[in-house]
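Q: Predict the assembly, please.
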Amino acid sequence: MPFWKGLLLRFLLLFLVTLNLFAVDATLTIEKDVEQRAKIAVEDGSPLPNERAFNIFLSDLKISGHFLADDTHRQGDFATTVIDPALKSKEYLLKYSISQIQGTKLSVKLFKTSDGTMLFKKSYAIGSSAKMPFLIHKAVYDINAALKFPSIEWINRYVVFSRYTTPKHSEIVLADYTFTYQKTIIRGGLNLFPKWADSRQRSFYYTSFNGVVPTLYRLNIYSGAKSRVASSEGMMVCSDVSRDGKKILLTMAPQGQPDIYELNLATGAKTRVTHFNGIDVGGKYAEGESSVVFVSNRLGYANIFKKPIHGSAVSQVVYRGRNNNACDAFNNKVVYASRESSSAFGNNTFNIYLTATDDTASRPLTTTGSNQFPTFSSDGSVVLYLKQLGGSTSAGYINLYSKQSQLFPINGNKIQAIDW
Amino acid sequence: MNKTLLTLSTMTLLLLGGCGQPAPGGIGGNISDADTVSIDEGRYGNNGAYNSSSDGFQSVYFDFDDYTVPSSQEGAIAKDAANAQRVGGKIKVEGNCDEFGTDEYNYALGLKRAKAVKDSLVMQGVPASRMVLVSYGESNPACTAQTDACYAQNRRVDLRLVK
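A: Predicted assembly structure:
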């Protein structure tokens, strides 16, 4: 190819990449990353072809950031080890067979297409048909690990969220990250702000408004054991849990003033972290849990600040936008929601931005619709958020390393809070 | 009784699951075959009947994204102070918001509105010890139509007696 043609091709590629960067978040993919991901085909060898399962495999492979999955729903014989020559252009072939009679049974095999070597083989089973998505997530997690790619442990986790049903009523629901699996854990009454209490997701905290004042409870999702943690007049929200689960950050208002407190669960000691005569809410552990990132209106509008837990200096984290009213932190990384318009009557645009506790630059992760509730995955590599666009709500995921993004529609009433 | 049944059924499920699947692996990690609970707290709450003030009190309305009591609402505050003297008992001051904020910040905004009403009532002679504040954020809309007038009805503080 002549030199000038190559140059023109590179210019065109750069132009397309630039276009992609400023398009909607569903196309945040950066072309150069495509070459770094493993090309993989997925073949359905189930007795009855299962497109739903195929789509979950595709989602898992895509959001992992490590695979470039072919979206053709191929069907074939699960038992054969002969690989279709047409698939030689792929690096890997993932074959699965799934059956949902009396629970869910899933078998997977991973082949290297160049020489037909079987790299991985495993069968899974679970008594519940509804939990089928979790079997697929686990299979993709195992395949990813077998290929020694960076961990995608978060793919196996439960998402817990609260949603309004009628005035002063809500329900708390468990889901897988694609929202294909959903189960209501608490129905009736007004129970909000669920937050996982431990890394194994055995229990979560939530705020009950069923008494005179808001009360924080901890519920074991398997035994149903429920214990009262704390209560406060005005507000009571558990906004974050330390890595070891021994300390939690609370928003409380014992004198009608919303401030952030840290509760040591072993001793019961409460430490008031912020002291401000306005609004301080949404405390998140940051910088190795030595400081707290939070939302405050101390400049006259909602914005993101940080302060050491045992110090007094409050510093501004975000220097853009005039209404940044929700955030999450993972070590020194911070994601926040920013309202881009100021209409008193709806249709406001919210976008998610990524910044750092030690950097003044922010980069947008979303560009269209109303995007809120940004939440880091347990390893900080992926951001979950809720997108509202054209009357529909979706859960969005952005892999910060591969720039892959995914949206999963969520049906039902308005979501109030979400954690995973 | 319910707990015993729940425990028994969970154990049975575990045992059956174990018998039926000796060869393949389960999921492991955070997700297990054990069933999760389902709790019904339907006995709590008020079935949505009280989404504005009651017991002779009037609701106090606020401007968008603001928690200072507007001068137009001074009449409502005066009537609520007079009603508080008349009815006696503990008063629940409930802060509410429209649907345009985000989770915790919106609840804090509702709380600041409730605090502003409480402070105004204290100025009019109602003892602070008679009032308890709770923010309901956007969870208790008085109106759900997507109109300007409707949104304005939700930026309010309700008052009622604690029962």
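The longest helix of chain B spans residues 103-123. Residues 25 and 138 of chain B are 45 Å apart (CA to CA).
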